């Protein structure tokens, strides 16, 4: 038998060769209830994963054995007994340990990514395991896979169109003038999933957070392909300029919303980037937008996957800033109504209602707040894993430990990604109606991000003062005449909802 995990459900996981199953090899999927007991997942995420697994099992018919069990071990014993089983390399350390512990299971190479792990390890070792910057890796991938290349040079004459792709949102509009994203229609399988989740919660077997329904993200290959097609035809052209912008009433902007489909294995990254490049070559999308999308898929997503395995399992415990504060109940419960700061309220509500926000709210609103408050990075990582529909261990460990919380001290990024309210004001329409003012550090209208930013710099001034990217603002601390007041204010605020 060949065992498919719930994030290995696209057709590229069934092609023969290189550890793949034969064309007639029986297939196995295990729905393990214990997965949902270990963490308090977002209800919409649990729904999406179960819907995707059950849809795939229905598509594969008699070839698929679908087992509902308490644990993976129980399900495997029931379905396969002592027969040999093959599986593609799992996407987490926990799952990898599990399959290694099962003598009947043979593990083949990972699928669903552009670069084999051994190739990345050779590239990284060639850099001495240090300075593994995303930009260098991204250019290496572009060359190796001939993505957006004109001969030996980058398409459009530049590797990086970030300068063009960091525009603030258009003023005097509440939404980008683009067609909305693809949205699926639920069916009887979704109804069955929702019934089961209701029953599990009612029985006290599991507990979820957030709201569920209607399903917003693809659960089948056909739905994922329709979502990709709609993005390429109607939204790719405006993706680039506003990919870092935020609008309160337009959470999706021109983003692709394909991350959950990629991470479930419904889409292969190669087809996404190749079809995006084809749009540029056909003159239907600007190179800046296409490069921004290719950078996210072939650059950032691939980079995060590779670092997860290259850095090793201990990386998740990195905590060079020694942040140990627990997550407050209002945050864990996604209680957006407890929050007055408009930016934080808006995006915490989006997570509560959909299990998704785009990458800038994740980094510069949610992650930045956790960093400024000194919350335990392992707990923050677990929160992102549980509460986002596209969140998996391999996704969130590097993204949160390295990028968002700077807990690795710079192995992954050159500086902490946090800011005062001025950044939020420049890149969004969120500050105008807010009770807090981005330019005020103290008093009843003091922006929690502005005050929190200066308090964070002061707390880590010794470390950050020696970082060339943060030394200037650290030196500005001594010019703040109200710094002592800011620090008293932020200590008193603690983790009370801002």
Automatic annotation (TrEMBL):
One of the Pfam families matching this protein, by short name: DPRP
Region (Disordered) residue spans: 160-185
Gene3D superfamilies (alphabetical): 1.25.40.80, Deoxyribodipyrimidine photolyase-related, DNA Cyclobutane Dipyrimidine Photolyase, subunit A, domain 3, HUPs
InterPro entries noted in UniProt: Crypto/Photolyase_FAD-like_sf (IPR036134), PhrB-like (IPR007357), Rossmann-like_a/b/a_fold (IPR014729), UV-DNA_repair_photolyase (IPR052551)
Signal peptide: none
UniProt name for this protein: Cryptochrome/photolyase family protein
Record organism: Streptomyces gossypii
Lineage of origin: Bacteria, Bacillati, Actinomycetota, Actinomycetes, Kitasatosporales
């Amino acid at each position: 038998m060949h065992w498919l995990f719930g994030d290995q459900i696209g057709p590229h996981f069934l092609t023969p060769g290189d550890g793949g199953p034969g064309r007639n090899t029986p297939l196995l999927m295990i729905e393990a209830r214990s997965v949902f007991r270990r963490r308090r997942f977002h209800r919409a995420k649990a729904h999406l994963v179960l819907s995707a697994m059950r849809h795939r099992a229905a598509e594969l018919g008699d070839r698929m054995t679908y087992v509902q069990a308490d644990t993976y071990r129980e399900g495997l014993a029931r379905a396969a007994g002592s027969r040999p089983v093959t599986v593609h390399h799992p996407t987490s350390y926990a799952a990898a340990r599990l399959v290694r512990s099962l003598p009947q299971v043979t593990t083949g190479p990972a699928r669903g990514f552009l670069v084999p792990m051994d190739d990345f390890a050779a590239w990284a070792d060639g850099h001495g395991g240090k300075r593994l910057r995303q930009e260098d890796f991204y250019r290496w991938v572009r060359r190796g896979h001939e993505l957006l290349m004109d001969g030996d040079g980058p398409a459009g004459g530049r590797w990086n169109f970030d300068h063009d792709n960091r525009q603030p949102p258009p003023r005097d509009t509440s939404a980008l003038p683009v067609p909305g994203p693809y949205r699926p229609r639920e069916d009887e399988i979704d109804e069955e999933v929702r019934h089961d989740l209701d029953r599990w919660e009612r029985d006290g077997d599991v507990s979820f957070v957030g709201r569920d329904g209607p399903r917003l993200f693809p659960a089948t290959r056909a739905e994922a392909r329709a979502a990709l097609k709609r993005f390429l035809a109607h939204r790719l052209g405006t993706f680039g300029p506003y990919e870092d912008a935020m609008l309160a009433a337009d959470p999706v902007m021109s983003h692709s919303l394909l991350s959950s489909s990629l991470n479930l294995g419904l889409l292969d990254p190669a087809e996404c980037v190749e079809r995006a490049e084809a749009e540029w070559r056909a003159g239907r999308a600007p190179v800046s937008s296409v490069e921004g999308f290719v950078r996210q898929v072939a650059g950032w997503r691939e980079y995060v996957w590779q670092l997860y395995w290259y850095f090793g399992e201990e990386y998740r415990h990195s905590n060079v800033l020694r942040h140990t504060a627990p997550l407050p109940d209002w945050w864990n419960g996604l209680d957006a109504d407890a929050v007055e700061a408009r930016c934080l309220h808006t995006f915490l509500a989006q997570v509560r209602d959909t299990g998704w926000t785009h990458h800038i709210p994740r980094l510069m609103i949610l992650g930045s707040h956790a960093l400024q408050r000194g919350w335990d990075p392992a707990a923050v990582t677990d929160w992102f894993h549980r509460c986002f529909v596209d969140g998996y261990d391999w996704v969130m460990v590097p993204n949160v430990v390295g990028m968002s919380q700077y807990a690795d001290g710079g192995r992954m990024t050159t500086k902490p990604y946090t800011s005062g309210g001025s950044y939020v004001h420049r890149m969004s329409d969120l500050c105008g109606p807010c009770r807090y003012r981005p330019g005020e550090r103290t008093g009843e209208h003091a922006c929690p991000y502005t005050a929190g930013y200066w308090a964070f710099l002061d707390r880590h001034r010794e470390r950050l003062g020696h970082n060339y990217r943060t030394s200037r603002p650290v030196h500005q601390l001594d010019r703040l005449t109200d710094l002592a007041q800011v620090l008293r204010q932020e200590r008193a605020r603690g983790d009370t909802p801002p």
